[in-house]
Fold:
Amino acid sequence: MSTRAAPAAEAGAPTDDLETLAACAQVLPELLRTPDQPRLVFQPIIDLGRAVVAGYEALARFDASITATPDVWFAAAAQAGVGPELERRVVRRALQARHALPVNCFLTINVSPRALTSAEVMAEFQNSGDLSGIFVELTEQQHILDIPTTRDILQQLRDHGAMIAMDDAGSGYSGLQRLLALRPELMKIDRSLVSGIDADEAKKACVEMLGVLANRLDAWLLAEGVETAEELRTLIGLDVPLAQGFLLGRPVEGWSDLDARTTARIRVASRELLGSRQLVRLVERVRLRPAGTEPPPDPDSIAVDLDDDGRPTALVFTDGAASVRRVPVTLRLPVTTPIAEAAKLVLDRPVDRRLDPLLCVHDDGTVAGAVRVERVFRYLAER
Structure:
């Protein structure tokens, strides 16, 4: 990630890197005297299921006489003992910018584990009121030495409404240990797993396993660094819900949106790759009729009663005992609902309603048809 703070350079690091690090350290005092540095840009995070922007990541950019990546600047600041001050500036500006966020979007803010334990950085969060819609993203390049203390700090942030994200999921055993210990609400797939995933079966298997882990942790999975259409299509096919990368949107100073071409690309891929896993696969046609119409439908068909405005009010069908039943419509599921998710909703129903057919609707709310519950579980059993 562009704003992560790195540890001191290790022995054996390339000479050019060490020289750049030293040069950045020399100009840091001047940079810190400049009130508007570092400035922020925002990279969109895309909901691949809906082909819309779901959130943004705040990233630092440095305007200085030395050309270096943000990673190097934060590493130099950490070496010079001013890492928390530099990260505090980023946190403050990001929290100020959240008030201009587009509706229904979240914001991720990168913080190193070391800075998170500093009083000045924590004060920025604690003095900012409700942190709903904010993900505090723990960067990966510094090791978390004190898991219990870090867990306590993260709980304080959660108590203020924030959620936690963790960088570079799948980057190694230590990364998995951190995930299990800290239980983030958002897991970011390491770029090394995303690059070339379309041609690498092992990477696909790793991402599938991370998806299982994310479900067990009740977390979202986000693929970062998506740069090719082939990578994007593969991630959609693997049911990865969120993604970001240059293909989807570059970091800019405002709140950018998806362009029409990329939106269409995502929707086409979703229809082609995920349609077989969604309720649309199981939908059967229904008879639409005015409410209260008699006689009842044929024994093998399902009817939907409509009110005067054309809205569905009841499902009419023959149950296993050959009795005609009319049940009110209390749940409308989009045809894009994953079949596994529909099964969970069925199990949450009252026992006497559990086997009632599911009403499915199009994006505009019109009736698409119905799905019999037995077909849902037969599909899952045959997978």
User: Anything to note?
Assistant: The first strand starts at residue 39 and ends at 47. The first helix runs from residue 15 to 32.
